[in-house]
Amino acid sequence: MDGITKAASSFQSPSASATDSKSSIFGANKDDFLKLFLAQLQHQDPMNAQDPNQMMQQMTQFGQLEQLMNLNTSFSSLNGLNQSMQSTQAVNFIGKNVSAYGNTIGIKGTEHGKIAYDLARAADEVVAEVYNAAGQKVRTISFENQPGGVSSHEFDGLNDKGQVLPDGNYRIKVTGKNADGTLVTALPLAIGTVSSLEFTQSGPILNVGGNKIAYGDIISVEQ
Questions:
Q1: How far lies 192's CA from each of 76, 174, 182, in Å?
Q2: Which of 141, 134, 114, 140 shows the shortest CA–CA distance to 209?
Q3: 37 CB-contact burial (10 Å; exposed 0-12 / middle 13-18 / buried 19+)
Q4: Angle 216-218-222 (CA atoms, 0-180°, nearest 5)?
Q5: In a designed cystine with 26, which of 7, 47, 60, 208 is the match (CB 3.0 to 4.6 A)?
Q6: How far is it, in rounded angstroms, from Cα 167 to Cα 211?
């Protein structure tokens, strides 16, 4: 019965990957533990019977172990239900405009996406820098007297030389500042229309203007 004591003391937090109430992260199921306990009772030395207090302690540990295993299954079921609900809700986003936390902008033909950001407060200037996949800065754009909150600007898809940028995803870096040099927190956003969805084990992914946005990163939806 030492195996039961060791298994109970080494219990880890429930894993969402568990799928069977009899499956256990201990490498055995609860029926196996019960068989071990009964086997010990059948084969104990009558002249040296097990201490009743120790037996009661082991039974208590077994009961706690079974409760934890059942809790593990409940967590797994809740996780699956949550992902199912997210997938159902995400389908309704197709064709709608969304805003999400993200620092990429897609260029595909004449579709150039938008440069968007969320300012902690009003700023005298917001500088947006555009980087290609190689990490090279290809465009710097300045926006004057920007209000606090969410703002967006159409991107023309050109580099600093006025040349058309090739199709692909570009990284955006935004910096807000005032005339006295103080910085204003600016978070880059991805804004666009949801064209399609991808369902993954970690949750639905929305395709927005060539960008892939996790469902949990969305902050607003518009018709």
A1: 34, 18, 31
A2: 114
A3: middle
A4: 145
A5: 7
A6: 12
Q: Enter the pTM of the model.
A: 0.56
Instruction: State the Cα–Cα distance between residues 28 and 123, nearest whole angstrom.
Output: 61
Per-residue pLDDT of 50-98, as tens digits, reads 555 565 666 666 666 667 766 666 655 555 555 566 666 777 888 888 8
Distance (Å, rounded) from C-alpha 84 to C-alpha 43?
A: 50
Give the 3-state secondary structure of residue 130: strand
The pLDDT of residue 128: 97
pLDDT digits (tens, 9 = 90+) for 145-179: 999 999 999 999 999 999 999 998 899 999 999 99
Distance CA 144, CA 125 (A): 4
Of 61, 69, 72, 71, nearest in space to 29 by CA: 69
Task: Please give the Cα distance from 26 to 164 (Å, whole number).
Answer: 59
What is the full DSSP assignment across 138-187? EEEEEEEEEPSEEEEEE---B-TTSPBPPSEEEEEEEEEE-TTS-EE-EE
